[in-house]
Specification:
Elements (H helix, E strand, L loop, with lengths): L9 H13 L7 H4 L7 H4 L4 H25 L2 E6 L6 H5 L4 E7 L1 H10 L6 E5 L17 E5 L8 H14 L3 E8 L1 H12 L15 H8 L2 E7 L2 H7 L5 H12 L3 E7 L3
Parallel strand pairs: 1-2, 1-4, 2-3, 4-5
Antiparallel strand pairs: 5-7, 6-7
Length: 264
């Protein structure tokens, strides 16, 4: 694949595999475990324990929020924006929610060649910033949008425009996405650069919560640190360097998951 963003596809999949193999009491992704032998070795050898847990923590916390949304609304839409090789629909099974995965055509094609099709998931080949994909959904249903490891690759202007479009098209909806500070973006770009030169650079960050909430005109329902739960559940089961880094990130609020109310 030529697209630089598509080249980051394997990173979160590797993280889920690593966490599932080493910390299954915290996070286990049965579907991801089936594809370890299909991932290029250069990717498997680079990811560290901390970096894998950072990505797995994002999915752990997001899954909790999605479960809460489904429990509250019953029949609803769960839309994975920039779905990549995410296995969200496999982890949830059938529960009344309708799952959708939106990503670039080349990514969807690559995904379909690697992952089996989930009966409860509809894949849509489209740019998430082009709202044509929304025409496929039942907009009368409550809808929760997820953008894990996605927004940081774009500009703030594009993200704010997307949020405005989601608000305009879906009356009863929420948005979950992970974010970091300027310092966090610099660290993340250093990590991703080790996978090769042809990797997308990250730029979007949330430095000030109040300013961001004002810009997107949304209520922030929650702001969840990445590692609070991981640190409690894993305690001394990780390397000392991993524990110290997770504590540092949480203490200085460097990485977090935002849940926004998009209801008008």
């Amino acid at each position: 694949m030529q697209n630089k963003i598509a080249n980051t596809l394997f990173i979160p999949l590797i993280a889920r595999i690593h966490a599932s193999k080493n910390f299954k009491q915290y996070f286990y992704d049965e579907t991801a475990m089936k594809f370890e032998d299909k991932i290029p070795q250069k990717f498997l050898k680079i990811s560290s324990e901390y970096e894998s847990l950072a990505s797995a923590a994002r999915y752990y916390e997001t899954d909790i929020m999605i479960k809460d949304f489904i429990a509250t609304h019953g029949v609803c839409n769960v839309v994975n924006l920039g779905c990549g090789l995410e296995t969200l629909a496999f982890r949830f099974g059938k529960n009344g929610a309708k799952f959708y995965g939106v990503d670039l055509a080349e990514v969807i094609e690559f995904r379909q060649n690697l992952l089996p099709q989930n009966d409860n998931e509809t894949l849509i080949s489209d740019d998430m910033f082009d709202m044509k994909w929304s025409e496929i959904l039942d907009k009368s249903l409550p809808t929760i949008f997820i953008a894990n490891g996605v927004f940081m690759y774009f500009t703030e202007k594009k993200i704010l425009n997307l949020i405005a479009n989601l608000k305009a098209n879906f009356k009863n909806s929420e948005l979950i996405f992970d974010a970091t500070t300027k310092f966090g973006i610099r660290c993340a770009n250093f990590y991703v650069s080790r996978f090769g030169e042809n990797m997308a650079k990250m730029e979007f960050c949330v430095q000030n919560m109040g300013e961001f909430a004002s810009k997107c005109e949304c209520e922030i329902l929650s702001k969840t640190p990445f590692f609070t739960t991981a640190r409690k559940m894993l305690k001394n089961k990780t390397k000392l360097s991993t524990r110290l880094t997770m504590a540092f990130v949480d203490k200085f609020d460097l990485a977090f998951i935002l849940r926004l109310n998009l209801r008008k």
